[in-house]
Design brief:
With 112 residues, the protein is mainly α. The longest helix has 21 residues.
């Protein structure tokens, strides 16, 4: 078992306990899994150390628990500015998207 698998089960179990306490009453792992946007079997495998989250689940966990998940798994945290832009990109008008792209192209051209 590698280092991240030794740490992650404890972390996700702690998050379950914290979430359960925030709900004010006992909750099931199935309810926790629904909160996380995944299934009970997946959460059970995480807690038992039989599986670690894939890229999509890491993104979901980061949305819920912030970037701490990357630290636990010893993965590089995503750039917050890029993450912000990606989250809002579809809502930007085409004119703004074009202007941002042109600014990036100007910057890249200057560096080359």
């Amino acid at each position: 078992m590698n280092f991240d698998m030794e740490k992650f089960p404890d972390w996700i179990t702690r998050k379950f306990v914290e979430w359960q306490a925030s709900q004010g009453k006992r909750k099931t792992i199935e309810e926790f899994a629904a909160y996380l946007g995944t299934s009970r079997p997946i959460v059970n495998m995480w807690m038992n150390g039989n599986k670690k989250p894939g890229a999509e689940n890491i993104k979901l966990l980061a949305q819920i628990f912030d970037y701490e998940i990357y630290d636990v798994l010893e993965k590089e945290r995503p750039d917050p500015d890029l993450t912000y832009l990606q989250a809002h990109w579809l809502n930007l008008p085409p004119k703004i998207k074009k202007a941002l792209r042109e600014e990036v192209e100007k910057y890249i051209t200057k560096k080359e």
